């Protein structure tokens, strides 16, 4: 039986959080993670406006009190003045993980030329990995899963391929993915027999 994992999902949107439009960020995150992971998942969902102090407070609460192993945010990564998710994420960081942002922008360029407008970052706080994703709901699967050919061959690996091993290294649960969605990479020495 796979270990249970606690995942914080945070949708940062002025309009979705005030009811101007329906939030599609939290359902997209929950759907993708439920399809991709074989572990039982406890979700901690939060829908909040683009306010730096509130975003930072939410991230701290999810890691320090709700004990999330992984936190994924969506929205607020662009250049608009109200887009402050990366700053708030850096406010709570112990360490930065720049490879995630670099890889996400590479992947996103295969979908939209404006990919370089996302300032998304990833950081470690305590024993938790926090990753920003862009706000377009379709960007969630695009960046996590990457790009596949019509016959399912991986053309550009999604960033989630590196998440399970990162969580191993910071002392979290052993994440197992559904390979048809995404194959996680771990060095041989870190692999456990499939459950
Ligand atoms: N949580 C969400 N739910 C549904 N659609 C969203 C959400 N966030 C973003 N979008 C869609 O993606 C587009 C770009 O997202 P972006 O994060 O730049 O929004 P925004 O212009 O900052 O506004 P807001 O913070 O009010 O969502 C939005 O115009 C909207 O169509
Ligand atoms: N994969 C992917 N990445 C993407 C996009 C997208 O549609 N798909 N939109 C881009 C656009 S138009 C912007 S402005 C930035 C920032 O978006 P955010 O402010 O919604 O986080 O993400 C970029 N990255």
UniProtKB/TrEMBL annotation:
Residues 8-154 form the MoaB/Mog domain. One of its GO terms (biological process) is Mo-molybdopterin cofactor biosynthetic process. One of its GO terms (molecular function) is ATP binding. InterPro entries: MoaB/Mog-like_dom_sf (IPR036425), MoaB/Mog_dom (IPR001453), MPT_Adenylyltrnsfr/MoaC-Rel (IPR051920). Gene3D superfamilies: MoaB/Mog-like domain. Pathway: Cofactor biosynthesis; molybdopterin biosynthesis. Belongs to the MoaB/Mog family. Catalyzes the adenylation of molybdopterin as part of the biosynthesis of the molybdenum-cofactor. This is Molybdopterin adenylyltransferase. It comes from Roseateles oligotrophus.
């Amino acid at each position: 039986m796979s270990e249970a994992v606690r995942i914080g999902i945070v949708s940062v949107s002025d309009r979705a959080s005030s009811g101007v439009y329906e939030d599609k960020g939290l359902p997209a995150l929950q759907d993708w993670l439920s399809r991709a992971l074989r572990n039982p998942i406890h979700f901690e969902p939060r829908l909040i406006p683009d306010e730096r102090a509130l975003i930072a407070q939410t991230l701290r609460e999810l890691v320090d009190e709700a004990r999330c192993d992984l936190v994924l945010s969506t929205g607020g990564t662009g250049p608009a003045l109200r887009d402050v998710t990366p700053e708030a994420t850096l406010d709570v960081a112990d360490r930065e993980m720049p490879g995630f942002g670099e890889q996400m922008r590479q992947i996103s360029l295969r979908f939209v030329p404006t990919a370089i407008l996302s300032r998304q970052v990833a950081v470690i706080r305590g024993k938790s990995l926090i990753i920003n994703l862009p706000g377009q709901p379709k960007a969630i699967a695009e960046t996590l899963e990457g790009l596949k050919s019509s016959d399912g061959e991986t053309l550009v690996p999604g960033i989630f391929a590196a998440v399970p091993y990162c969580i191993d290294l910071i002392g979290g649960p052993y994440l197992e993915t559904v390979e048809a969605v995404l194959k996680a990479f771990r060095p041989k020495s870190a692999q456990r027999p499939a459950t």
